[in-house]
Amino acid sequence: xxxxxxxxxxxxxxxxxxxxxxxxxxxxxxxxxxxxxxxxxxxxxxxxxxxxxxxxxxxxxxxxxxxxxxxxxxxxxxxxxxxxxxxxxxxxxxxxxxxxxxx
Length: 103
Prior knowledge:
Layout: E1 2-3, H1 6-14, E2 20-27, E3 31-46, E4 51-57, E5 62-69, E6 71-75, E7 78-84, E8 90-97
Antiparallel strand pairs: 1-6, 2-3, 2-8, 3-4, 4-5, 6-7, 7-8
């Protein structure tokens, strides 16, 4: 994981516009969602650090927002953005993939 480069993160997500993606969300403590698939209509990265990621989905009928993101990992077919707290613990993660996640 590296600190978020907002331009690189946004460009990586924009490459998948119009394609079906699969999403994993986790907020610690309290929320977990894995395996949802949708067509990515648009992706936005906002802020000056920490950052917010917005994903517009399925004809813009769905929206996902994840905030306070600090780090990212971009590879072929997978984008991960994660937030760490002051104790270097993961507080939230969003993963966007071109392939389904195993359940």
